[in-house]
Amino acid sequence: MVSTNEETQLVEQLHYTLGDLDASFSDDLEGLLTWLNPNETQSNHQLRPPILRIKSAIKTLVNNKNAQEPFLDLLRQFVVYQTRVHFFSNFRSLVHFKDLQKLERYYEFPLRFLELFGDGEWTEEISGFRNYLIFYHPVLARNVKLRLKQLILEDDFEMAMKVYSWLCSAEGHSLTQLLVDIILAKVKVFASKEFSAEFTRRFVIMETYNSFMASFWSTLSTMLECPEDNHEITKEIYESFEAQFIEIRTRQAFDIFVTEYPNSKPTLLELRAVLKSPSKYTQLITELLVQFEARVLKPSVTTVEILLSYVKAIKSILTVDISNRYFQLLTNFVRPYLMERRDAVVSFLNAMLGMGTIEHRESGTKVSQANITSQLSKEISDSYQPIFTTTMESSSHSQQQYTPIRATGEPVCSQVIARFLEWSPEPSDSIQFNGDNSFMSEGIFNIIIELFDSRDVIIAEFLRLFKEKLFNLRGYRLETNWHSSLKILKERVGLNKFSNAQDFSNVNNIDVMLRDIKQSEDLCCEMHKIPNINVDIVPKIISYLFWGIVSDSESSSREVVLPTKLDHDMTIYKNNYAKMKKGRKLRLHPAQSLVKIRLTCANGRTSRHEVSMDKAVILSCFSSEHESKSLTLEEVSAKVDVEKEFVQQVLNFWLQASVLTYDHESGLYCTLDHGENSDDVKSSRMLGSTGSTIHGRNDSGAAAVRSQQQELFQSMERVWPFIKGMLTNLGSMKPEKIHSFLKMAVPKEMGFTATVSQLESFLCHMVDENQLESTASGAFKLVK
Amino acid sequence: MLLEFEKVYPVFSWSWDIPGDENAVKENGDEDLCGICRVSYNGTCPSCKYPGDDCPLVIGECNHNFHVHCIQQWLDTPTAKGLCPMCRQPFSLKRNVAINEFQMGRLAKVLINSQPATLNDDQDMMMEPEFVVR
């Protein structure tokens, strides 16, 4: 080690002060100085107790009553000097707290064996170093603070205490703010562990807070050097728990609002209690919407699932949001997406009618789908109740408890101003819907209804389902779910408010239908009393105008020629009707009629089918007592007097039901009389109305899409004059606007059902046709 | 293979059995509408809810058909003078038509009251109830 001037001087002075003794103790002194010197890394103490020679040197030179004060003073100077030299040449290499500890131990170690420094002297020296480090070694300072945080987070309070006291001595004062920050960070970690998956427990915040306090508060309060009943800090901790709760729940918005909904009610209620500022609400709802879009509004999610999610979300929002302002945001958000789904209304009505389990399964829907539908119907079924707004009262109650004195630091007058005179409006996005009590009292059901474009859509769709149901009725009795649904719709959707002529006629139609069924039952009873009448025939006699059925010329092409026996029976019924109801006649509608048939094969196998009458009649051409019959398409068509396309469709239906086979070479359809694969023959439950889904066999996917598009364009051609008209008047328009205009303008009889995207594809098609041109903003205008 | 109908649930639609209707050529679709309310024969007059028994049809001698409520109301007005609103011939119910059977009595009174005061002999006869149907 290169000795500096100061060092050499000090050593010389030390030798000098020894005076006479120097001669005999010079070597001892040298040895001692080397042993003490932190800079002599190779030959100093190296954290080991002194060897005998050094020990005796210490004994004679230092720990001796005769030791002279000037000598000791110089020795002190020497140690301090050497330590400082070592410190300043080495402190840059300090990175972590443990390096610090090591260094301090290194410095202090030899002093344990020397009675050199008084009580405060050395501590002061060390504090000086610490202080220097805090200000001139930011990396270390940061590391130490991080270490403290880490230790507290890891519950190692013993070590934390050491680090903390080190920091305090370095800074020269207690670091309450730092410690509180760390505590709050700890709260955060603790909270996220406790809150994350607990949706079913009540008072989670309180319980978590309590358990936190029970485990840590006594230690922490010692560290903070505050009494355990310091409520300023405990309150802050509690508020921090609340804030954490809100933050975590906001992140989990979708899970608690939708996925876990009925189970997550406790947490929703708790959330309501802690959510105070509108901005937090907005944040929560925004997050929900974002997650809702990401997880539900996707093409792969079925409409029923979307509806279920929507209903759950609405219920959750209403649980959380006492002001009933925010659910409208969700409705507005989901509506455009759902409008693209044509089966939205049907899914909703199916669920409402509780058909998730019964009729859906019949038509071959997947079980999981049916499950979701039944879940949805459960959710809807309890939505008819008015929404209770007891929470409103409780919230206003808590307002009154507001303490007038907020903080002692502020003058009272400014507090009063802040309390009563300063008012900042709620964020405008939250007041789109004005909480209307009458609206609320009608219940969640109406909110769900709001989701759909208009009530007419629902009514029309219900009417269609209702009609189908009545046609497929096997007797005259309607299930209770239909009755109750009808009642609800009448009450809720305003079916009986007669807001316009269309509604009126819809209601009227339903009433007439029900009456027709009732009268049919009476008539049927009467007729079955007539001797020799076939009582296996249960007729429905309808007022066709009210059932949306075309009675005359147009449908006559479907007037199939019935088998003799059936035709005879039908004629009997017709004649009897003419006798009972003077001046009226009957006309059969085979497509709407339903029959149960039994097929008996030559090998004795029988199967039963329930199909529409026209299908059965076409199949009956193949009926024969003994041998199997083979007929061509043309022969069948001629026999039943129905156009070929329809016969083809029906024959395909029977092919799929494994009743007929088709021979490509001869073009003959033949009954599957001797088929061994009787197991494959499944009883087909296809009804007349669903039969239309069966396409020709060689319909490939692409062709189907093309034909669908063709169909769409054809239907759109009808509304083309409307579009043209509005573009002539208004210049360029966006598809959404055109869509909403069309909805208003196109008469109901024409039936405009296309979605926005379909309309857009049609408009693009018209651009290709040079009828329209599209503008940069996505609008369309007429070609000039 | 033998096909048997085990159970049949036929759907019939009823309509008014108007004689000669089958052969009538429908030119513009107007044929089927009540000349007064312009609603189909098989529908209801504006004041009725249920078609059929509640709102029957009547066939005039002049082969103009109306909902009974419509023609009744028409004949009740002084300007009607017992004439068919379509062809201005004296209105009376066609005989031997099943539809009209139940409506005879109902319309008779109305028809008598609505006859104009000055009538020739021929028309006088119609005032007697039994002559309402010619």
Structure description:
- The complex is a heterodimer of chains A (784) and B (134).
- With 784 residues, chain A is mainly alpha-helical.
- Among the domains of chain A are: 4-117, no CATH class; 574-671, Orthogonal Bundle (Arc Repressor Mutant, subunit A), CATH 1.10.10; 704-782, Winged helix-like DNA-binding domain superfamily/Winged helix DNA-binding domain (Arc Repressor Mutant, subunit A).
- In chain A, 60% of the residues lie in helices and 5% in strands.
- In chain A, the strands form three sheets. In chain A, strands 5-7-6 form a three-stranded antiparallel β-sheet. In chain A, strands 3-4 form a two-stranded antiparallel ribbon.
- In chain A, strand 6 and strand 7 form a beta hairpin.
- In chain A, helix 7 (138-153) crosses helix 9 (176-195) and helix 11 packs parallel to helix 14.
- Chain A is elongated.
- Residues 356-365, 388-406, 428-441, 553-557 and 676-699 of chain A have low confidence and may be disordered.
- Chain B is of the alpha+beta class and 134 residues long.
- Chain B has one domain (31-127): Zinc/RING finger domain, C3HC4 (zinc finger) (Herpes Virus-1, 2-Layer Sandwich), CATH 3.30.40.10.
- Chain B is 21% helix and 15% strand.
- Chain B has helices spanning 68-76, 104-114, 121-124, 129-132; strands at residues 2-9, 11-16, 57-59, 65-67.
- Chain B has a two-stranded antiparallel ribbon with strand order 3-4.
- Mean pLDDT of chain B is 76; it is low at 25-30 and 117-134.
- At the A-B interface, helix 26, strand 1, helix 27, strand 2 and strand 3 of A face strand 1 and strand 2 of B.
- Strand 2 of chain A pairs antiparallel with strand 2 (11-16) of chain B, so a sheet runs across the interface.
